[in-house]
């Protein structure tokens, strides 16, 4: 068995107000373009939905940086989803194009860290494979 190695690392920082402004301007159309229903549901269950939305936005940007692709045809917004284990630990799921890209690149697991302050959310993603 080949040893695991880091295939990519990405980080991103997002202003929470920027996400709130986009939602205020475009409403559910904005949310549905960027986030999976489970991500929207979780955010709406929180006191300030813009905080978890900003963290998930940052995580998706960080993932695109880890792959070196940016957000686009090979890794669209809905090609990835941020979930939460019962412990609260976030995790990354790939869908459709995102799953295809991860398989092509040999990604076998990911690490994800989310954090926020009153004004900013940040995420770091590590792609691991052999």
From TrEMBL:
One of its GO terms (biological process) is fatty acid biosynthetic process. GO terms for molecular function: holo-[acyl-carrier-protein] synthase activity; magnesium ion binding. Gene3D superfamilies: 4'-phosphopantetheinyl transferase domain. It comes from the Bacteria. Residues 8-107 form the 4'-phosphopantetheinyl transferase domain. GO terms for cellular component: cytoplasm. Its EC number is 2.7.8.7. It is an enzyme of class 2 (transferase). Keywords: Cytoplasm, Fatty acid biosynthesis, Fatty acid metabolism, Lipid biosynthesis, Lipid metabolism, Magnesium, Metal-binding, Transferase. It catalyses: apo-[ACP] + CoA = holo-[ACP] + adenosine 3',5'-bisphosphate + H(+). Its cofactor is Mg(2+). It is found in: Cytoplasm. Mg(2+) binds at residues 12, 61. Transfers the 4'-phosphopantetheine moiety from coenzyme A to a Ser of acyl-carrier-protein. NCBIfam families: acpS, pantethn_trn. Belongs to the P-Pant transferase superfamily. AcpS family. This is Holo-[acyl-carrier-protein] synthase. The gene is acpS.
């Amino acid at each position: 068995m080949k040893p695991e190695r880091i295939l990519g690392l990405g980080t991103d920082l997002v202003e929470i107000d920027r996400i709130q402004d986009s939602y205020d301007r475009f409403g559910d159309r904005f949310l549905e373009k960027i986030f999976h229903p489970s991500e929207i549901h979780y955010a709406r269950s929180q006191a300030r939905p813009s905080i978890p939305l900003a963290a998930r936005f940052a995580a998706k940007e960080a993932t695109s940086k880890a792959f070196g692709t940016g957000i686009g045809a090979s890794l669209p917004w809905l090609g990835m989803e941020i979930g939460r284990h019962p412990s609260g630990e976030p995790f990354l799921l790939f869908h459709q194009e995102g799953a295809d890209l991860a398989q092509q690149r040999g990604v076998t697991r990911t690490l994800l860290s989310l954090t926020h302050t009153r004004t900013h959310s940040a995420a770091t993603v590590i792609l691991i494979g052999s």
